[in-house]
Structure formats: C-alpha cells, structure tokens
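Model: You mentioned two targets. I'll fold them one after the other.
Researcher: Yes, keep them separate.
Model: Target one:
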Amino acid sequence: MVVWTDFERTTIQAIFSKIDYAVVGQAAFSRCLTVYPWTQRYFGQFGNLYNAAAIASNPKVAAHGKVIMEALEKAVKDMDNIKATYAELSTLHSEKLQVDPDNFMLLGDCLTIVVASQLGKNFTAEVHAAFQKFLAVAVSSLRRQYY
C-alpha cells in the first residue's frame, strides 16, 4: 500500500484540476509515438502515423490521449486503491492487447514533460516528485497483471 502525504494528495489533485485533458493527453501521447516510434505498432488502426506532424494532427491519437487522461483521473479519484482501479485495464493491456509494459513508463515520462510545460514555474521539484510518485504507482498498477 502506498502512503500519500497531504501535500502529495493535494498536489496531484491540483494538477489534474488545472490541465485540459484533451490538450495534455494529445500532446503526451503524440510525443510518445514520435519519440518512441516502436510504440506505434499497437495503433495500426489509427491510420497515418508516418511523421510528427501526421501524429500530432491525427484525431484518433487525440481521442486516445484523452482516454489516457481520463484513466489517470480515475486513479486520482481513488489514490488509495489504484491497483484495484486498474485491475481490468492491466488485464486488457497484458492479455488482449499484449502491450509492452515498459511503454507505460515511456508514456509517463512524456506526460511529465507536457505537464511541466503546462505548469511552468509552478512545476517545482516538490511538485515534480509528487507527480512522479503518482505516475510510478499508476505504472506499477498497470504492470501488475504482467507478473
């Protein structure tokens, strides 16, 4: 079980209350597909992912980015039970979609970059640490079914 400080809880909730899921989700997911092109293999049905411009303007990428952010919102709403919250999602990604679990960490890194750019000087080292802890718990919960 993860122990959250009051600062971490309020910080994570504040981050998610300030960001536009559609904008941040699209930017983070687009960045992940561009920087780590091997992650594209799971999204063949998305159409044109041939370059950064095509990825950034792809409506299916934008829609899935928002889905990712909405899934993270569920974790924010139940921070004491993220593993249970993500149990079905973990099973889906491991058994049906067979996603490489390392990709969750790569996406988390891209999300951190985008959130930091959105929050600017408010993304202090302490805020960054809280956000990284949250993402580490979310990624661990998604990877749970793999082991």
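Model: Target two:
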Amino acid sequence: MQGRLPAGRAGAGSHGAGLVRTTCSSGGGPGAGAGPPGARPSEGSLDPLYPRTYGALLKVAQMVTLLIAFICVQSSAWNRYSAYTYFEVVTICNLIMILVFYLVHLFRLYRVLTCISWPLSELLHYLIGTLLLLIASIVAASKSYNQSGLVAGAIFGFLATFLCLASIWLSYKISCVTQSTDAAV
C-alpha cells in the first residue's frame, strides 16, 4: 500500500517540494507477493505462503515470547502485586491481538472485511501495544525483588517489546523523498 501526500505547496521554480511515502510490507496484506495483478498463488481462503514470510515468523516469535513472559510471572509466588496483574493483562492482550492479525493474514480475511483498514489497525495496535508492553516490563523489572520467575518474565517482556519494535520498523517504513518541481518549458 503506497500513498503520496504532498508535504507542502510548491510555487513555480521552487526546489525541494517533498513527498512523504509510507510503505506497508506486513507480509501477507493485499497484493503482497501476488505477482501480476491477475495472478494469485492460490484461490482458497487459506494463504499457504504466509506462514513462511518474515511478518508471520515475527508474529509467531512475538506470541511465543509473550506467552513465556506470562507463564513466568504467573508461576511465580510473588505475582499478586498490581504491577504484575498489569503485566499479565498487557501480555495476554498483546498475544491475543497478534494472534488475531496472524489469522487475518493467514485466512485472508482482509479480502472479506474491506471496511477495516488492516494496515492502519495493525500499526495502531503495534504502537499502543508496544508502548504499554515497555511500561509493563519496566515496572515488572523494578518490582521483581530478585525473584527468578519475575525477572525472567520481565526479560521476556523486554524481548517481546524489541520484537514488536522490529515488526514496526520492518513493516511500516516511512521515508521522505524530495522532488524538484522545475519544469522545462
């Protein structure tokens, strides 16, 4: 998905009128890896190529680390503080949302539910979810009191935060391109 937005109004003979290009490459969205416009890898509702894409593998790694972080904190004896309840809620909500986006791409539900902007929804989820996960991991690490399960949960929380940041970085690239508006008469 590419959109072009004018960065400013260019007068006659001005240089540096910029375009902002945003590119979404979440690895399975509409048109990703489809080749020519009429060619499709398969006609069914299941995308057999999606589980092998970088976006899918990154989502699986995120889900696994979030599940390990949740299990580490849940199995600890000192998990009744509100900081750990918040950590558990954030990890499970992120896990569920990442699973939903994985299934949307796997079963090509973006073709059926066209009223939702899936790239924008996924971007907003990653921005908000990563910020909440970072906060939860910092709080969990500061309240761990050297309990091994809590420390391990916080470490896996930080690892999941890093994987979410990597997903944002790799999937949603924003670049500013300058173009000259001088036209030869």
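Researcher: Noted. Anything on target two?
Model: The first strand starts at residue 2 and ends at 6.
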